Amino acid sequence: xxxxxxxxxxDDKEHFWVIFLNAQNHxxxxxxxxxxTQSASLVHPREVLGPALRVGAAALIxxxxxxxxxxxxxxxxxxxxxxxxxxxxxxDLRLHDHIIIGNGTERWVSLAQTRxx
Length: 117
Prior knowledge:
about 30% helix, single chain, globular, 6 strands, alpha+beta
């Protein structure tokens, strides 16, 4: 599914999506929260958490790409993720994962799997 998002946004910019899930972890929707530059994407908490509340989501997955092809999380990626975890908890939402995909590669990183979440 994530690779389909990237095919639709095939350029040299970072794109940040949020996948909303219901209480049974069934897909609700996946809005694009931000389009950034080659090396950064500004994602304000209200652009992630506000829509989650409006659609009645119970959980979410963050997803963004790295145009460089290297999905290694940056310090900013880790900071943003931790802030979204804390904000989600305040609103009784579960943040399952933050997935980073390298453009043009089959490489990706799950922050939940690396225990950075």
